[in-house]
Amino acid sequence: MSVLLLVGCKQSNPEQPRPSLVEDKKAKQMLEGIWINEDEQSVAFRAKGDSIFYPDSTSLPVAFQIFGDTLVMHGASDMNYAIVKQAPHLFVFKNQSGDEIRLVKSEDPIDNYAFKNPQPHAINQDLLIKRDTIVMHGSQRYHCYVQVNPTTYKVIKRTYNDEGVAVDNIYHDNIINLAVYNGASKVFSSDFHKQDFKKYLTEDILKQSVLSDMIYNRLDEDGIHYDAFICIPDSPSGYVVDVLVGYDGKIKFEVYQ
């Protein structure tokens, strides 16, 4: 087995504006309302009170402030956006790529329906998965059970919407139980969490990943091998870790370079 790790480079914005120290309450109040992308003619967001809400029900609302010519969004980490122009019905800013985004304030009450579901929905397979496998080692018969249990543990993954603005999507992690029996005798049984594999993940990747599945791979003289998949949702990025259950009930993790 080998590790599958296709992690994109962390984007940085060397020209990210530095906000002044005094919040502009008047500009913040002016931003209140529903804003439309002038080019796409689609709903971009709604500003209300101290928060910005997105029409995508998977994206978390984000607290925001305006300091001088800078819009600051307080998500999983703070993001700054340079304001090019602000008026009661026009808002122009630069996204993370430096592109100017022109928004116009909506006057159509129908656009309110884009926000009829105020609570974000987690993207999650939300399925209880059970599978069992029978393998033979010599004359010994082993019965292996895997159960993938969905949880309410939230995983936050940062993505970028059509306006090039960072938004935080929520997912749910899994707990996986692996049990191995030799006849009626229990060889091994334990729950696995993604934290059990933190040795093989950076902290940033660990925060965005879910323990997706555990699948039987092979049997050899050392024991029974399972593949544990720790993946970033909606992304090819992730790890595959070899989980070896020895015939003595001891486990070993191994990653081949």
Secondary-structure-based class equals mainly beta
For the biggest sheet, the summary is: 8 strands, antiparallel, barrel
Helix content percent band = under 10%
Written as H for each helix and E for each strand, in order along the chain, the element string is HEEEEEEEEEEEEHEEEE
Tell me, briefly, the overall form: elongated
How large is the count of helical segments? 2
The mean pLDDT is 86
Strands in their spatial order, largest beta sheet: 1-2-3-4-5-6-7-8
Instruction: Please give the alpha-carbon distance between the first and last residues.
Output: 9 Å
Tell me what portion of residues adopts beta-strand conformation: over 45%
Regions with little confidence, pLDDT below 50 for 5+ residues: 1-15
Please compute the radius of gyration using only Cα atoms: 24 Å
| Beta-strand segment tally | 16
Describe the secondary structure blueprint for this structure.
Elements (H helix, E strand, L loop, with lengths): L24 H6 L2 E5 L4 E7 L2 E3 L8 E6 L2 E5 L3 E10 L2 E5 L5 E6 L23 E9 L2 E21 L5 E17 L2 E8 L10 H6 L1 E10 L3 E9 L6 E9 L4 E4 L3
Antiparallel strand pairs: 1-2, 1-8, 2-3, 3-4, 4-5, 5-6, 6-7, 7-8, 9-10, 10-11, 11-12, 13-14, 14-15, 15-16
Features of the shown structure:
257 residues, mainly beta, eight-stranded antiparallel β-barrel, four-stranded antiparallel β-sheet, 16 strands, 5% helix, disordered N terminus
